[in-house]
Amino acid sequence: MKITKDLYQGSLALLTDFYQLTMAYAYWKSGKAEEEAVFNLFFRKNPFQGGYTLAAGLDYVIDYCKNFKFDTEDLAYLSSMKNTDGSPTFENDFLDYLKEMEFSCDLEAVEEGTVVFPHMPLVKVKGPLLQCQLLETPLLNILNFQTLIATKAARISYAAQGDSVLEFGLRRAQGIDGALAASRASYIGGTSSTSNVMAGKLFGIPVSGTHAHSWIMSFSSELEAFKAYADAFPEKCIFLVDTYDTINGVKNAIEVGKLLREKGKEMVGIRIDSGDLAYYSTIARAMMDEAGFPNAKIVASNDLDEHIITSLKIQEASIDIWGVGTKLVTAYDQPALGAVYKLSAVKNREGEWEPKVKVSQQSIKINIPGIHQTVRYSKNGKAIADMIYLDGKALDDGQYTIIDPVDPTKRKKINTLDLDKEFLLKPIFRKGKVIYVSPDIHHIKKNAQRNLGQFDKAHKRFVNPHIYPVGLEESLYDLRTELVFKMKDYERE
Ligand SMILES: Nc1ncnc2c1ncn2[C@@H]1O[C@H](COP(=O)(O)OP(=O)(O)OP(=O)(O)O)[C@@H](O)[C@H]1O
Ligand SMILES: O=P(O)(O)OC[C@H]1O[C@H](OP(=O)(O)OP(=O)(O)O)[C@H](O)[C@@H]1O
Ligand SMILES: O=C(O)c1cccnc1
To answer: Which residues form the Nicotinate phosphoribosyltransferase N-terminal domain (predicted)?
Structure first.
């Protein structure tokens, strides 16, 4: 994928918060730029009060890191920045350092389409402190949004119970890149196509659509409009029936469907975009069945989300295909995932890794120190529990206790003897070089389906979902507790 080149025509190195650059300068000035560090990217709460989250956006991260280079124009801009007293913000020697800098980090990440949970790292970056620091903002920008939208799409698709969901979000999305990234993430999460033609071209997502009310309104009658559309697209007719009177619209669609049939073509269906969707879809279904069009599909749209779709399913609405825009691509009820990127270890002068912890009044905000891996235990394809542990620790099969990172009274014992295990963090970059082959978007989508299939419906329900067990392996838990107490004592002294 070449999103950076196609969309921005240049470097994205300045797509970061200013404070990342001032810290980078200060790291460089104090001789710490090349000290080795580890940062983890994780979130603290599943979005939409749900029971899971679906990871997406890694391909953008890979592209960002591959192109992580300050170009001449970036450096010229930085060199023009001034302090309040008029002196340059950044010394020339520092800008030369940035000019020569090559991305050299190790990066591990969960693959796109993986079901993930609070506190587990989605990305782990190990490398020179200055580089790791600069990646904080862009990585969060990319992964927070795409992961959020993929999760929303998974929820909407779950509510649709296997029916196709068409993503119609472009006109209401958060700008150009918001729309493109949302179409991509939605497809990964479960939608079957997008109306956004550019997303189709850039990402290889199927593109589909019907027509608008303006088409009908531009003719002197609805019937005439349907006929003209059928002439232009005899293979692809989905007639929008609610411009004037929905029931009459269905009658007109049937009439044009019969004309098409005389020419050996079948109308694909109708779309209803207003009114009581259960009521009108049920009447439309009966009318089309009666008229000999039992295979004609009914598409519904109009401010749909997972909750309205669930309600329409309960009402036994005769809807086959769901067109969803605004509430999907804007993640309407929760506009940000809230993932964070935290330092978790630094290498000391003796070359040993020192775990780092940030102490907080709120236990949910205390990070997990050290360098981690997450293992997912499953049996017969069903996920049982995830354990976050210190990377490198030998995981012999046997009894483990996993401890909730926020509430240590919540513990679960697992015997891993007969369980399958999957290590969720996969190597992506080694010393700045990509060693991961990105699957194409259709494989990512399949991976999402496989992942979602590992989890029970109790974790997927929208109201009070059952909490999937994710915990710290005991020695990691002990390390964290010990460090928190140590830091508190240290601060007190
Ligand atoms: N049977 C139904 N059960 C639950 N929600 C529904 C049902 N039918 C429609 N809705 C939803 O109700 C919301 C508002 O629909 P409503 O009929 O009030 O206005 P509208 O159809 O948008 O009106 P307009 O004609 O201005 O487009 C939409 O989000 C729609 O998806
Ligand atoms: O409702 P969404 O989930 O965002 O789906 C996209 C909406 O966009 C179109 O409406 P349009 O822009 O013509 O506006 P209107 O139908 O609300 O008048 C379409 O008819 C859908 O209603
Ligand atoms: O193709 C459609 O029906 C469509 C596309 C965008 C927005 N609303 C509907």
So the answer is: 14-144
